[in-house]
Amino acid sequence: MNMDMKIRLMFAAGLLALSTLTACAGGKMRSDYKKNDVQPVKIEKVGDSLQITYHMPAESLFYSPGIDFVNEGGVLRIAIRRCGINEKCDAMAKAALPPAEPWTPKVTLPYGGEKVVLVYADTEETLTP
């Protein structure tokens, strides 16, 4: 492999890494679920944590592993993840599925009193713990 090709490959790899970091750190948070798909969504402050429960639709090819979240300027933005059953898919905060309510995942994440915004595919909603 000649030197010009190596430089191009390293440059392309660097751009890919930078775009991935930008998407995760400062990019728009996104959810694949529409608001009506996961209702009811409930949040409860428990000490310095936030407990979130939501309805996981019964789908044969998809599931929700939990949520992603980011604190942007004192606003806690939360997005419920949706993944294919054959995908490697990690959520920042993993969902626990209570045996008595298998379609109602419960997620716990750190909470410092920020405003809470739930991001859906079709809208955003401000919630109060």
UniProtKB/TrEMBL annotation:
The keyword Signal applies. The keyword Signal applies. Keywords: Signal. It comes from the Bacteria. Residues 1-25 form the signal peptide. This is Secreted protein. The lineage of its organism: Bacteria, Pseudomonadati, Pseudomonadota, Gammaproteobacteria, Lysobacterales. It comes from Xanthomonas citri pv. phaseoli var. fuscans.
